[in-house]
Sequence to fold (94 residues):
Amino acid sequence: MEDASAAIDNYDQTEFLDRTIRVRKSKPMHLKPNYHVPVWHNDNWLQEIENKKFENERLTKEMEEKSRALGLPIFKNIEKKDDEKKMIFNEEDA
Fold:
């Protein structure tokens, strides 16, 4: 600790190669728990992604069933090319 205090006293606000050096006491790092563990360390992240995908598919099927029940057309494979939207209509679904 004495060396650090001496370095602060001796080198703070000194000039080196036409630049002013600032020497201060460092602040403690605030790390998140398990910051060193990669996200793929366990399969929870993959399960969450798969659950979201299955939920999205389920909601899509529900919306298609409701559209069929109301007699509405079902549009699939909406693509955007050259600022032009292309919609494919399935006549057998109507």
Q: What stands out?
A: The chain has a mean pLDDT of 79. The chain has two helices and four strands. Helices lie at 2-11, 44-70.
